[in-house]
Amino acid sequence: MANLSGNAAYYVAAILIGAAVGLVGSAFHLGVDALAHGWPSFLDHTLGLDGVTLYAAAAVVAAVMALVALWLVRRFAPEAAGSGVPEIEGAMEGLREVHWRRVLPVKFFGGLLALSSGMVLGREGPTIHIGASIAKGVSDLMGWTARDMRGLLAAGGAAGLAAAFNAPLAAVLFVIEETRRQFPYSARTYIAVVLSSIASAIATESITGNVPFMLLVVPDVPMGMYPLFVLLGVILGAVGVGFNRTLVWSLDTVRRIGLRWSFYIFPAVVGLVVGVLVFALPEATKGGEILAVELAKEGRPLGILALIVLLRFTMTMASYSTGVTGGIFAPILALATTIGLCYGTAIDTVMPLPEHGLQALAIAAMGGLFSATIGAPMVGVVLVMELTGSYGILVPVLLTTIFANMVAQWLGGRPIYEILLDRTLALEAQASETPPAAPAPSPAAAQPQEAR
């Protein structure tokens, strides 16, 4: 009877956490949307700026937003840099500590500024970290054991992903597949994750509506196209490994710049460039969820699509390397969609694709690149289904996703969050072994300022 009572309290806590995360996550997303559209509209329509003056003003605004976002991270919560997912996985493994009191405000307001500036970052990372931080606060309040606390961290993180994309099933699978090494699996913790995801989805839907986040329905494709999806998966497997390695190289390069001169130089440059691109080439800015749907429907020329792929790849690396708050789920999905469109458009010039064939390849590419970079193929499949509503092409998406994962493993690729966590731990160990050459900085400033 005592065990039943304990389970009931645990489940109630999971539901309350999920609902809170859904509300906070929705407020975060609405705030990002409002600010991201608000400041460009103010410069363009309210102030009536144009030409060089408009570009200069936009560059300054975006740079200031990026710098303030980075200052919040470096000054108050260094662990809030980047997506935060490696931090949560590290905490579930007992390697990291979730300082929820400082992470929550920095992740919310720092993420609001960073994403609204136009940098190519995703909203899912901040909401996952926010969700886990809320769960840690509840766990501290209730005084639960370390195992129960880790279970609630997973529940809060899942609720954050559910709120980000209105994808509760993918959120549950994310815990099972992505955090399989760290999640303290039991009936109690598993049920808590499911309940928290459901509660988050209900809260999110009550505010934003029950519509797929990237609605792009493709009914079905002929079986004769299936080999094209296999080949697409092979290509994306290689792209995913290259993506992860380039991201780590970018982080290391920007860190060297920061150590030699200042950690604020590179983010300032990225902000200036992003501000100009918001008006000059908006396709190269922001998370890209809406862009992905628009591109799939518009049918742009191959050369333009290839240019967008190059620009978004470059801006994703640059944006994430700044050390501000922001995720990589959404940028990966948008990049994958554009790669799929490039692939399909190139094939269409040789042999005409069937109706909806181009859109089907674009949707399947999302799952493929997600699987190759994140290392969670089933999450990629279900996430794509929930995001687009295209359940009719489940088999093609499965083919693309699993072959991408197979090729990524064959090439020696590792899940990006695993790589980032190992990198963070290695940098901290290195910093602790190096004697300071000057008076020690404050505790917050002494921690590695890295994007997770």
TrEMBL record:
CDD domains: EriC. It is found in: Membrane. Residues 431-452 are annotated as: Disordered. Residues 443-452 have a biased composition (Low complexity). Keywords: Chloride, Ion transport, Membrane, Transmembrane, Transmembrane helix, Transport. GO terms for molecular function: voltage-gated chloride channel activity. Pfam families: Voltage_CLC. Gene3D superfamilies: Clc chloride channel. GO terms for cellular component: plasma membrane. The chain crosses the membrane at residues 9-32, 52-73, 104-122, 152-175, 187-204, 224-243, 263-282, 302-320, 327-346, 358-384, 391-411. It comes from the Bacteria. PANTHER family: CHLORIDE CHANNEL PROTEIN. This is H(+)/Cl(-) exchange transporter ClcA. It comes from Ancylobacter mangrovi. The gene is clcA.
